[in-house]
Amino acid sequence: MKSVFITGCSSGFGRDTAKFFLENGWKVVAAMRTPDEGILPRSENLKIVALDVKNPESIRRAIDAAGPIDVLVNNAGIGWLNAAEGTSIETMRDLFETNTFGTIAMTRAVLPQFRERGDGVVVNVSSSVTLKPLPLLSIYTASKAAVNAFTESVALELAPFNVRVRIVLPGRAPDTRFGDTARSRVQRQGGFPDAYASVVAGVFAAWEQQQYAECTRSADVVEAIWRAATDPSSPMRIPAGADAVALSA
């Protein structure tokens, strides 16, 4: 029975991906900052571990607790929506520490076992905003674009060891808490700069006009992650969701 380690399983894409792999007969190590046994269905094939991807000791403990794994899904991340001028350096660093360095650190943590075994898959969940520039997302996009660059380069390093690395690029997913959480973080940190009021209004107006069928569903992302994990012929970049597919065309 194969095993998958998934970060960011407390909600959204991570939670739904963990459920899907369990339903398809995999052992699942579901990692989250604050473990909650009630988030996922009880199963003898499920192990829930605490993980803070910004903390090296937390990563070590989680990997040790997981035991041998076949696939790592780097899904943990935080969103941010604000002008660059309205984003503090501290917030920028926090985004990169989680979205970028957290992904890199988790990848490095599993590479010894993958390389020695001559098999393994790393799936990095990025974002379709890296495919087309959008306002108020410059810092978030930068953190995810760095993930793309890292993934494509490290994939070349690992190919001789039969280790595959893939990128999943979700679009905007209104049926998850990701966007709302990002906006609430902005409000807690002072809101949007007044000078950018018209830019902010334009962004939210565009979102309101976007039809649900044109957005990304959590199921789209789960399907893309499954494909990346199980299909050796899958492409390096896998868009997930109608809007992501349109941007990648």
TrEMBL record:
Gene3D superfamilies: NAD(P)-binding Rossmann-like Domain. The keyword Oxidoreductase applies. It holds the Pfam family adh_short. The keyword DNA-binding does not apply. GO terms for molecular function: oxidoreductase activity. CDD domains: 17beta-HSD-like_SDR_c. InterPro entries: NAD(P)-bd_dom_sf, Sc_DH/Rdtase_CS, SDR_fam, SDR_oxidoreductase. Keywords: Oxidoreductase. It comes from the Bacteria. Belongs to the short-chain dehydrogenases/reductases (SDR) family. This is NAD(P)-dependent dehydrogenase (Short-subunit alcohol dehydrogenase family). It comes from Shinella fusca.
